[in-house]
Amino acid sequence: MTRIFLTGASGYIGGDVLHLLLKSHPEYRVRALVRDVSKGAAITKAFQQVEIVNGGLDDTDTIAQEAKEADIVIHLAATGHLKSVQTIYEALANKPKGSKSPYYIQISGASALAAGELADKTRVFGSGSDVIYNDLSGIDSIRSFIKQHPNRAVDNYIFSVKEQQSPVKTALVIPPIIFGKGRGPGNQRSMQIPDLAHATLKRQRGLRVGPGESRWGNIHIQDLSRLFLRLVEKAAEGDQDENIWGADGVFFTGVGEMSFGDISRRVAIAANDFNLIPSNEVDEVDVEEFDRLIPRGSVLLGTNARAGADRAKATLDWEPEMNSLEELIPQAVIDEARALGMKGKNLCPKLGNFARTGNAVEQGESSRAPRGSRQRRIPKGPKGESMMPQFMPRECVEAKVIENLPTPSRWVAAVDAIPDRSMTLNSRKWWEDHGPWLEAHEAGLKLPAAKWKMRG
């Protein structure tokens, strides 16, 4: 039986990883470090097979004992807590002779790639960069760059132990912007995009720091969790591939990329379309004001961290499958509006932005289709024109904004009524995410012709 010790189970990333891990491999024995008793109870309620270990990251004796007894340690609770990282590694390295090679998977953050910018006091936050890192062909330059910045203590520690002759197989995972709703029992909210949406709604205008040219990569939380799952599965198999573990075991995870100016613009447009703010204009604000509105906003939304997930694709048989960030920005705005109690506002989008023409590649999948699935059928409008639905929040359905539009229970059932039975699970998720327009049409529910926007 594979024994796993996991930290961060009540968090956004850790909770989603735990969900997928147990769903995919119920035979794994998972022990989770949890500091808060109530959060531990929530985890146990959601995942009865998880064994809770009470303690925090400073409880070195507890962490050392758990790491020593585990085959795989997944440290997702923190990216910069050096003491816990050292404790885990030393416990794994000092396992009794004859033990199986232990595996250690550590999370970091893409701000590591902005270390040079942050050290340059003359650099303008929000300015762009042409530097793009490659974790497959450019691993030496990545290590060299991070070693120039001692404040990246955890990253540099992992690099230093990778260079030693040690039985511990290490992998360092460095995510960029993470988006999408988590599936864990604790925090299900990400940071950068929700925080930007929150600030936009609070100040009633869009905002960006500097010229808005800086860029980070991005990844859906479920795609990130599948990458962690593939690493765990490789470890459980006893994989010894030096392209995965050790000195070269550094995984960037960006699968999309947008400038922060474009993200700010899309947030403002969505908020305005939902009648939550009076204008879709975006203001350029100074660093001090931006950081006041969004803690560490100038770092997380005003620097450059450009890198793709080349190593994961090449070594883990992994590809992204989920919706793009562009598609899910409107939902982030809706979620933050709900959190702010903006229920009195009309959250239904203006009709002109509501139904569009197009094809499945351009608008449905953002140029990415899940493996094993075929291109989706495109519905026909009242005159036979090709139609694609755009995002529509469920509030609009529940309010019955459009005559004859099915209620949530009916449009979920309408998905099942679609005759194309070749759809994969990911395809079904795509249909559900894109709202009731297509489901209603496919199920034979008549929509008024005026509700469709004609091609051309």
From TrEMBL:
Chain residue ranges for the region called Disordered: 359-388
GO cellular component, one term: cytoplasm
Coiled-coil residue windows: none
Ranges of residues in domain NAD-dependent epimerase/dehydratase: 153-242
Highest taxon, organism lineage: Eukaryota
GO molecular function, one term: aldehyde dehydrogenase (NAD+) activity
Comp. bias intervals (Basic residues): 371-380
Organism, as annotated: Fusarium equiseti (Fusarium scirpi)
Pfam families attached to this UniProt entry: Epimerase, NmrA
PANTHER family in the cross-refs: NAD(P)-BINDING DOMAIN-CONTAINING PROTEIN, PROTEIN YEEZ
NmrA-like domain ranges (all copies): 3-78
Protein name: NAD(P)-binding domain-containing protein
